[in-house]
Predict the 3D structure of the following.
Amino acid sequence: MDVKREVGWEALIDAYVDAFNSRDIEALMALTDPGIAFYDAFWQETCVGRDFRLYMEDWFKIDSYFYSRLGPAIVTTNGAAFRYSAADRYQKNPHEAMYTGVEVLTQHAGKIVTISDFYADPSSEALEEATRVSAMRHGQPKYATHGFGTLQKSELRRRLRMMIEAGELRQDTYLTVRELAALLGCTPIQLIDLASGGPRTESESALRRQFDLAATEVLSKLF
């Protein structure tokens, strides 16, 4: 189907931006297909399916920007793109843009199926090209497994370091992986991923058997 004939792009994008600004994960998920694929060009990460929800839940905890649309959507035969500006909502001038970007969306039956986020402000011609190549970008091999992306890993490492420096955690403190994850506000699987330096290849049941093991080894690997 030629998406130029589909109606509702403007309303769909408005609802999408509103969900981001209100940090409303339920509203965001209601707009997306269960097989949603999200590509972040800056971090070179792809997140697919149920991992998208986990990725965005963590993103909403970290992100401090307010997003504003810049002009109407550019609809092509492959999807639609829209420009946006990002302003820090905690600054004295919350309307001063910190950076601009473009997101390219595709939809099916009114649900967003792919999202490509580019931290740039290209020309209309470049946006046309971006919509043509966005599907290929979703094939990048660097996946944010379990919704755990580079930015989220950095934030989790920072929280862990602060707790250790404050004396809230010591190397001789006995905690299970599950208990440490609860203190850090992450999932046990995310903590295991962080400690191992990347996604684990074990089955989910094998990973879960590690949740109640001592977290001492996890801490020693990180620091």
